[in-house]
Amino acid sequence: MRKILTGAAILALVSSTALADEPIKNPLADGETWADLQYDIVGDAVLNDGSALFDLEAPFRAHDAATVPVKLTQMDGGDSRIEALTIIVDENPAPVVAEFTFGDGMGPLDLETRLRVDQYSNVRAIAVTEGGDTFMTGRYVRASGGCSAPAMKDAAAAMAALGRMKLRQLDNVIPSALSTKTPAAQSGTRRVAQIMIKHPNYSGLQRNQVTQLFIAAHFINEFEVYQGDELLFRMEAGISISEDPSIRFTYTDNGAPTLRVWARDTDGAVFEETFKKTAISM
């Protein structure tokens, strides 16, 4: 997989006037933009139709282009473990949103995050299985201006809260995992968690609303989650992950009592937090 496409793309403003009247129903269909991107992202890899392996769920018309929810779910019967996954927004200034690497505890895949979408675009996910095969699926999303949308907080407030993390443990969404009294760490149980981190994730395309000068790119580009010493997943991200990044994921409990989060941003600041697993609730 190619490294995140940043650099000059971050510094250039891209017009958001390209519109599409109809969705591209087949995410494998060749398009002019994808034809230019494909080799840089996957090289000579054969892209198999991923629709039987996993699903990418996203709104056809986004409510907020700066926080477009994207959910990735492995299909029932999709036995091949997904080891790595890349999310791409074809028409974004930096099309590669993030590259994920998954540990054994993340299979079968169930993960959700929020993206910026700068123009009407195909949103793609490319998965590599443990057997080395590559699969792609995706959706068409109508949204515009997400990469240059003003930050929700002013700079002072954003810096004051920089790196603060919160963990939500959402195990009650898996009925089969529930019991009246369950220890905090139950080995083999499928559990659900959501990690949120405060960060403005400036894209480099936003303007200060007072001076109208561009705000320098400053975003979280590395993010890791562990249970005990076992890696659940690692994310290498670009400018297209939303402000205040949020990742919801399902994992298999290995019995360790804690979840540990490590993140680093493009200024070199490192953020770490360790959370105790709670008992699974009814």
The main sheet comes to:
9 strands, mixed
Q: State mean pLDDT (0 to 100 scale).
A: 86
Question: What gyration radius follows from the Cα positions, in whole Å?
Answer: 19 Å
The 3D shape can be described as globular
Number of strands: 15
Show unreliable segments.
5-25, 175-183
Structural category is mainly beta
Write the H/E string, N to C.
HHEEEEEEEEHEEEEEEE
Explain how this protein is built.
- This protein is mainly beta and 282 residues long.
- Helix content is 7%, strand content 37%.
- It has 3 helices and 15 strands.
- The chain has helices spanning 8-11, 32-42, 155-160, and strands at residues 47-49, 54-57, 68-74, 82-89, 96-102, 110-115, 121-129, 134-141, 165-169, 190-197, 220-227, 230-237, 246-252, 258-265, 270-276.
- The strands form 2 sheets. It has a 9-stranded mixed sheet with strand order 1-8-7-4-5-12-11-14-15, with no helix packed on it. The protein has a 6-stranded antiparallel sheet with strand order 2-3-6-13-10-9, with no helix packed on it.
- β7 and β8 (134-141) form a beta hairpin.
- The radius of gyration is 19 Å and the shape is globular.
- The N and C termini lie far apart (41 Å).
- The model is unreliable at 5-25 and 175-183 (pLDDT under 50).
Draw up the topology in text.
Layout (H helix, E strand, L loop, with lengths): L7 H4 L20 H11 L4 E3 L4 E4 L10 E7 L7 E8 L6 E7 L7 E6 L5 E9 L4 E8 L13 H6 L4 E5 L20 E8 L22 E8 L2 E8 L8 E7 L5 E8 L4 E7 L6
Parallel strand pairs: 1-8
Antiparallel strand pairs: 2-3, 3-6, 4-5, 4-7, 5-12, 6-13, 7-8, 9-10, 10-13, 11-12, 11-14, 14-15
